[in-house]
Write a structure and sequence with these properties.
By secondary structure, the chain is an alpha+beta fold. It is built from 3 helices and 3 strands. InterPro entries: OmpR/PhoB-type_DNA-bd, Sig_transdc_resp-reg_C-effctor, WH-like_DNA-bd_sf.
Length: 78
Amino acid sequence: MSDRPGRVITHENLLEHVWGPAHRQDLDYLRVAVRALRKKVEADPASCRLIINKPGVGYRIAIEARARALRSSPILST
């Protein structure tokens, strides 16, 4: 999908790669999945500092926030 960190991945691209080409327009699937993922990885899911939405386009991972999260992870710091 993307080999450049921090790049925005389109909704359609995410949907096609995760659920298949027949679901390229099913944004509800993607929104539910991103909401669940944010609950697992964001310190405060309402603030959306790690998974950033680009309205009408797609999502990107905030590289700086990801690095901080990895450093502070109790699992990865051992």
